[in-house]
Amino acid sequence: MFVLILVWPLCLVLVCFIAWFCYTFWVHQLSEIPNASILAPISRLLWALPSECRGRITLDLPRLHEQLGPLIRTGPNEVSFYSLDIYKTVYSVRSSFAKDPRVYGQFVQDSHPALFSITDAAEHSQRRRLMGQLFNYSKMYLLEGIMVENVTAFTLALEQQMPRAIEVVRACRALEADIVSAFGFGQEIGAIASWASGKDLQMVKVNDEKSKTIALLSGFPVLASTLERAESILCRMTGWESHSTAAIKEFDQWSFSQLSRLTNPTKSPSISPTHPNFIQTMICSHLPAPSALSEAKEMLGPGTDTTSATLAHILWALAHDAPYQSELVSDLDNAGWPTDIGSLEKVERLRAAVKEGIRWTGAAAAMLPRVVPGGGVVLAGMFLPAGTVISSSPIWYLRDKNAFPSPEIYRPSRWLNDESRSPEAIKLRDDFYVPFSKGSSACIGAQ
Ligand code: HEM
């Protein structure tokens, strides 16, 4: 009798599993799409985890696409695509493909979603309009003071380190963390000073470490929230907290103290016309203070990682290309070493070096998941039902062999007019240049 009580439920579970197995493999509307692995229709976690852990998923998937075509099923309900036409449809200005809330929800700070993590289209476009008053090409001159001051502090710190070898990635990280924090909070976080004294600022270091795992964790949202909950329970029970949680708390305290400073009715500084800061500008435009704080905090991640990785790559590449470097220096000499964006953009070699650096670094290497809207959609001749999560990564297009011959080589001259190229080749190059993605959720910091 006892054995029967145990066996029946087990049999029921087994039957349900076999039924679901047959359904997901042969009946599901995505079953016609080639699988990334035999395990993909069962779970993304099962086949992708090792590749995600090695940080290779965005390198491995394009190879699979070469063999299997523009669409690949990566999970029971997930599809990866590699096609510029589909990219333009999914990430368009009026796209009805929303950001996947399970993934973008991981980035929400203090329960106040910021532009990057807002998934509702109407709320997103309202926030984006509001932020546009600072993130606008015509307003870039307002940020010149912040840039010049921090670059000056950075070059002084570099001079002091001479002639020792400099770890360029860490140095650039410090520079960008100070620029973005000065812009966001009206005060530098102190990363350059900390780096110059031989220590990385823990708050910045942890942010870096977190960004290494965020691609992994955002690919497995359930795993991420389970780990987070487990740590918070452990902390409540034993008082133990990880090194990164402690540093994140330190950053939270620092950012909250900045908000208090900026909103203190008696002591708050007035917005400086030469050094506007994000939090005060947003609060003056009636964005609630907690949301303004969340935006500034959230910005520090994508604003620092991407720009510092790109700058470090460019410096390294130019250091290995002496002829280009000396031509660039002579162009800047001739232009009188300007600091305003308009004059800098006129220096063709500088423009090319930066554009190629952004392409070659491919700092935004993540997949950008979107949800297929109601009614489903036909892509590459296949029907994808509503709710399917589809994604692609900008770096695949930046490394496309046809658009960028020898894509793994840093070659700024591909952006100069002195390389003979057909109009078709130029169009292909420009079309595939999507480092900031496209459409209504393209990078707001692209200016
Ligand atoms: C080389 C530098 C950068 C690259 C390659 C880059 C790349 C990207 C990409 C590909 C996206 C789209 C992400 C998605 O759809 O999920 C994005 C969004 C975003 N980026 Fe950047 N980014 C850079 C610099 C910056 C900077 C400097 C800031 C701010 C100071 C910034 C703030 C943001 C924000 C707030 C979003 C969300 C936009 C929205 O949803 O409307 N980024 N970025």
UniProtKB/TrEMBL annotation:
What does the record give under GO molecular function?
heme binding; iron ion binding; monooxygenase activity; oxidoreductase activity, acting on paired donors, with incorporation or reduction of molecular oxygen
SUPFAM superfamilies listed in its UniProt record: Cytochrome P450
Q: Which Pfam families match?
A: p450
Q: Which InterPro entries match?
A: Cyt_P450, Cyt_P450_E_grp-I, Cyt_P450_sf, Cytochrome_P450_monoxygenase
Q: Which domain of life is it from?
A: Eukaryota
What start-end ranges are recorded for coiled-coil regions in this protein? none
| Cofactor(s) the protein needs | heme
For this UniProt record, give its keywords in alphabetical order, as a comma-separated list. Answer: Heme, Iron, Metal-binding
Binding, heme: C443
Q: What is this protein called?
A: Benzoate 4-monooxygenase cytochrome P450
